Amino acid sequence: MHADHAPIFRVRTPLLALTLVLSAGAASAQWMWVDAQGHKVFSDTPPPATVADKDVLKRPGAPAVSPGTETAEATENQAAASKPAPDVPPGRDDQLEARKKQAEAAEAAKRRAEQEQVAKARAENCERAKRAKATLASGVRIATTNAKGEREIMDDQARATEGKRLDQIVASDCGPMPAAR
Asked: Model-level pTM?
């Protein structure tokens, strides 16, 4: 090394040491708990709600606790620190609840709109079927168009078949709405 570079190394060495110390502190800000299978889990996020407080071995900002070496006081302090305010149930998110309620209300409104649309279509079908049945019962000659596009007059057998079909429509659409499945 040259003599003119020595002051740079004198400044860099303490900065490097300070950086290492600070990064070690940040790395230790982790959670540690024992999962359901008995394995230690390390994470920078809190454990899931299913993990009991006694299985949380380390919290950020708290010293690590080895299993079996906890004191009663340390256990009480950790339990008190981890409990939420008494007026808020654990795991409750007000925004999530509000979004759920909005989604449920939107779904209910959608179902009501669909039911109203079905009821309207049923009422229209019922009215058409009743008018067609009245026309059929009047005895007036009725012409239909066959598959070839030719006009045909309904005979007694075709009237009877059409009457049965109209009776089925009246029975299904003019009565009370069937229960939803």
From this structure: 0.41
Kindly tell me the number of DSSP H helices and DSSP E strands found in the chain. Answer: 4, 5
Check: CB of residue 34 under 8 Å from CB of residue 68. Answer: no
pLDDT in tens, 10-49: 656 666 666 665 555 555 558 888 988 889 988 888 888 8
DSSP H helical segments within 28-149, as ranges?
72-82, 94-137
Which residue type is seen at 4? Answer: D
The Cα–Cα gap between 144 and 150 comes to: 8
Cα–Cα distance, 55 to 46 (Å, whole number): 12
Cα dihedral value 67, 71, 77, 79, nearest 10:
50
